[in-house]
Design brief:
The protein has three helices and eight strands; from the N terminus they run αββββαββββα. By secondary structure, the chain is an alpha/beta fold. The relative contact order is 0.17.
């Protein structure tokens, strides 16, 4: 009887320890909060200035990224299971936040401006962006990083041909293993992605014009 009781107590301790480990990711010290990507950086006026009129439709995203949740994965337990913080949220879906950031940056760099839809508007190129990842991953309870992955497709609207396509992948270590750390790192990754996307698009447009 004593052996059985000791075994049961041991199992209870193990289960309790496991529960505490699971709770340690964000929820233990998490406070209710909503986040966006922060204030955009100030950039000098581009000397090149894209002269093509660009269509920038809404960025698309898979179903698991379509909500307002700040998504994380516990790689040391089950990397294929995306989860969201209980109390911390984005102010909008990540794809919507990135759409706003991309449009703002491209509008500042484009000499003739941008449009959001080709319907009834003359435009030269369409830039489609498909968001594939925008999440935080834990390799250990106190160690995490974020990943932003997106596929960009530049399309010539005159002849409906694909000019160029590229997959962008940005990773950064999160400063803290929690929701605020994820937000800070993903905001940095977003800025890096937008600048890389702008430079790549400008280069592809110049290349296409030279042909």
């Amino acid at each position: 009887m004593n052996i059985r009781r000791t075994a049961l107590c041991g199992a209870a301790i193990i289960l309790t320890a496991g529960a505490l480990t699971a709770c340690s990711i964000g929820s233990q010290k998490e406070q209710p909060a909503t986040y966006d990507l922060g204030v955009p950086r100030n950039h000098p006026v581009s000397g090149s200035g894209m002269t093509a009129i660009m269509v920038l439709p809404d960025i698309s995203a898979p179903e698991w990224l379509n909500g307002n949740g700040i998504v994380y994965r516990l790689n040391y337990e089950n990397a294929s299971r995306p989860q969201a913080y209980a109390l911390s949220r984005w102010t909008a879906a990540p794809s919507a936040l990135l759409t706003q950031r991309v449009r703002s940056r491209f509008a500042a760099a484009a000499a003739n401006g941008i449009v959001t839809t080709p319907d009834g508007v003359r435009a030269d190129y369409l830039l489609r962006v498909d968001l594939e990842d925008f999440s935080q991953s834990f390799d250990a309870p106190n160690s995490s990083r974020v990943a932003l992955r997106a596929r960009a497709s530049l399309i010539n609207l005159a002849n409906r041909t694909l000019v160029a396509q590229r997959v962008f992948a940005v990773e950064h270590a999160a400063p803290t293993p929690d929701a605020p750390g994820a937000v800070q790192a993903l905001s940095t990754a977003s800025e890096e992605f937008v600048e890389s996307l702008l430079n790549w698009t400008d280069e592809r447009l110049k290349s296409a014009k030279g042909k």
